[in-house]
Specification:
Elements: H1 5-11, H2 14-80, H3 93-98
């Protein structure tokens, strides 16, 4: 409010003051409605984004689980002495140690 406005309001007629206060109350009420609408809109946006992130997170988890299983397969076969998944090489580090056909066990004839 500008200077002198308060004095003008206080010295005005009661009907004028009432009108001014009613107008201020309507303006305040409209601001409350706009604020509530903005909060609802923000809440909807937040829920939408949370759902999108859950979808993305689920997709990443599935990809991670598949890749983890794929990465563990060669390690588990190497520990068991089985050939690895690599078809070009038939020996793994553990399998070659346990194999009866190592270079140390081959006899010269």
């Amino acid at each position: 409010m500008e200077q002198g406005k308060i004095d003008q309001i206080l010295s005005s007629k009661p009907e004028d003051r009432r009108y001014l206060f009613e107008e201020a109350a309507r303006y305040y009420a409209s601001l409350k409605v706009r604020r509530a609408e903005a909060e609802r809109k923000l809440q909807k946006t937040e829920e939408k984004h949370a759902a999108e992130w859950e979808g993305v997170l689920g997709e990443v988890r599935r990809s991670y689980d598949v890749l983890k299983v794929q990465a563990e397969k060669p390690l588990s076969t190497a520990r068991c002495g089985m050939p690895s998944l690599n078809t070009t090489s038939t020996s793994s580090c553990c399998a070659s140690r346990n194999s009866p056909m190592t270079t140390r066990s081959v006899r010269k004839v």
